[in-house]
Amino acid sequence: MVSAREKIQGAHLERLAVVYLRQSSSRQVRENFRSTERQYGLAEEAVKLGWEPERVVTIDGDLGVSGRDAGPRGAYKELVARVCLGEVGAILGLEVSRLARSSAETQRLLEYCGLTDTLVIDTDGIYDLRDFNDQLVLGVKGQLAQAELHMMGVRLQGAKRHAAERGELRFPLPVGLVYDAEGRTIIDPDQEVQAVVADIFKVFWETGSAYGVVGAFAGRRFPRRAYGGAWAGELRWGSLTHARVLGVLRNPSYAGTYVFGRYRYRRLVRPDGTITTGMIELPRSEWAVVIHDHHEGYICWEQYLANQERLAQNHTRNGQRPAREGSALCQGIVRCGACGRSMSALHRREGSYYECGHSRADHISTPGCRSVKATVVDELVARRLLQALAPEEIALALAAADEFADRRKRSNRALELRVERAGYEAIRAERAFHACEPDNRLVARTLENRWEEKLRELKDAEAELAEHVMPSSEPSREQLEALARDLPKLWAADTTADRDRKRLLRTLIADVTLTSTPDSRELQVGIRWRSGAAEQHAVQRPLKPADAQRTPSPAVELTRRLALDHTNAQIAQRLNAAGFRTRKGDRFEAKHVQWIRWRHKIPYPASYARGGELTVSQLAERFGISEGTIYAWIETGKLTARRGPANKLYIPFPTEVEQQCGRLVTTSVHLSDETKIRAAGGAV
User: Which of 111, 408, 478, 679 is the most exposed place for a label (fewest CB within 10 A)?
Assistant: First the structure.
């Protein structure tokens, strides 16, 4: 039997002895420093085993890094690389489990050690990976380490679950909630924090979207609790973001409900092969522990569920969207009757359109068959809405006025709390300044500057409050009551924003479905009310601009029937007599008929020549000359011609004209003798 010392050969001593250090977290590094000292002490053990001090290398880059995955452990990767390059004679560690908590990672490294003749040394002995018994021992140790990790996790998770079922497991609370001295969850006693958190839920219910809350909080601050660092546990005030709003709205703690198991960790494999751990949010039905009325909340559980439903409806792929700007009244609630998907509102120069993106993707039909001008649908829906709202017009207007007054009151209260806090901070700074020793000028100067800064903040807060509470030109309640008596006038008023019209529409109408076919102008509009009632209406889609400017088909057909035996002027008279008009509304003239002939390829009669007339081509053929010569004679007045339909020229051809043409040919200096002889023969 080979002893442990005999396993160390000269070839091993000529290479490096690597001491690999690892602890799972920074907290372990800080608190379990004795373990760190023991691991560093392995370098001296390597020297005792025969390695020269300069050949002993300590790799400690993974202190504070978990051994679950090799991805984030740069020092472990360095160790594997050196082993594969044959630079390492032995790896030293307190336990094999220090190498990796994953058995796959451990076995892979041990396989590399066997291929490169690298020893593994721990507190129990020296292992040669080329020896089967040593392989077996280290393999069992790796499995035991992984089992130990699993059992520790099971026990810890079980203890957490048991504490959570009693509602006693403490975890960081969101802004607006704190633990009291006895460990119970209570609402933050800071009134400014209370007001700003409560306003998020109120504004969301008014605007209907998280982005609406962000817009309403423009210029206002929102607290964020710092975890770690110099500001650990303190509130830091800053701007409100969309992600923060969603975090508040989706957190059940604000509804007084204790929840454990909202998230679950899941391991994923990246495209580069590395393994990472991600966190996913579980649906409400899979939450492990839910305890209602565990503590006082800002809203009730029913309100929380209603908020989640509204957020789900606002999702761009599911349900209706929140009311937005734009003239398209049914934007966000209009659906395509062909595919059932939501239709998009497109704003073009000529107006807004409802268009089904699914039709453009699958090419089932042309975009025009599922593209509808918004005004066609909006006018119908608005008319039906006003008819349905006639009895409740005054109540709606007064409710809007009360909502506006309540919103302004909350905003004023937030500014008042800010002034109160700024005054308190200024008083504290003043006390600190007066409590300072006068001779300690360095400290006194700093405290004085801080006092002046707090006074400036107080002045700014007071100025903002004074500006906000100034009398405005808002209509009085009496004016609103008078205006509410005529809801159609309120609907059409310039002071009514498109977004307000959309919100009013959605209070009664759930969705609008549009169904059409490519070969018909008729559009079916289905309206589904919040009460569950549904109704169907038919409207005519407007003609496309190109179709609206075309000559009516009956007029074209009449022109086609009269084309072979009537002139353009005669056809124009018949069109006017039949009541047809041009695309501009004018009476038809010969030039309009000529355009119709060209546009629709309607032929002219074979000839419009009168008795004794020849066309230019016939005269040129008779004398054996070119048509250009005939046109030149006509332009210079040597030959008379009549202009007929389609600008065609007709030449009277009595005997004297024939003789005149013969003389023009024989006396021309531009024609050859051969042409003159041929022309003279044609004139005979």
Answer: 478
Which residue among 24, 209, 342, 516 is the active-site one? 24
On whether the CB atoms of residues 13 and 7 are closer than 8 A, the answer is no
Assess if residue 373 is contained within a domain: yes
Closest CA to 129 of 121, 140, 118: 118
Do 81 and 195 share a structural domain? no
Residues 211 and 282 both lie in one domain: yes
Q: Give the whole-angstrom CA distance, residue 449 versus residue 445.
A: 6
Instruction: Note the pLDDT of residue 684.
Output: 41
**Statement to judge: residues 362 and 286 lie in one domain:** no
The tally of domains found in the chain comes to: 5
Asked if the model's pLDDT at residue 307 lies above 80, the reply is: yes
Query: Residue-wise over 39-73: b if at least 16 C-beta within 10 A, else e?
Result: beebbeebeebbbeeebbbebbbbbebebbbbeeb
Rounded to the nearest angstrom, the gap between the alpha carbon of residue 548 and the centroid of all alpha carbons in its chain is 37
pLDDT bin (cut points 50, 70, 90) of residue 251 is very high
Question: Alpha-carbon distance 526 to 345, whole Å?
Answer: 18
- pLDDT, one tens digit per residue, over 30-81 is 766 777 788 888 888 888 888 898 988 888 877 766 655 555 677 888 888 9
Cα(576)–Cα(589) distance, integer angstroms: 9
Q: CB neighbours of 535 closer than 8 A, spacing ≥ 6? A: 384, 526, 527, 529
Token duo for residue 386 = 């006003």
Question: Are both 588 and 630 inside the same structural domain?
Answer: no
- Cβ(508)–Cβ(388) below 8 Å: yes
In this structure, the answer to whether residues 266 and 348 fall within a common structural domain is: no
Whole-model pTM: value is 0.50
Per-residue pLDDT tens digits for 509-550: 888 888 887 667 788 888 888 877 888 888 887 766 555 556
Strands 534-540 and 522-529: antiparallel
CA-based torsion, 650, 653, 654, 659: positive or negative: positive
Domain contains 170: no
| 142 Rama class: left (phi>0) / alpha (psi -120 to 50) / beta | alpha
Cβ-based neighbour number of residue 28 at 10 Å? 15
Domain with 381, as residue range(s), is 324-545
Residue 259's CATH number: 3.90.1750
Active site residue 97: no
Q: What is the largest CA-CA distance in the chain?
A: 142
Is 570 found in the same domain as 540? no
Of the candidates 145, 63, 134, the one whose C-alpha atom is nearest the C-alpha of residue 104 is 145
pLDDT in tens, 187-215: 999 888 899 999 999 999 888 888 888 88
Let me know if residue 208 belongs to a domain: yes
Q: For residue 438, tell me if it sits in a domain.
A: yes
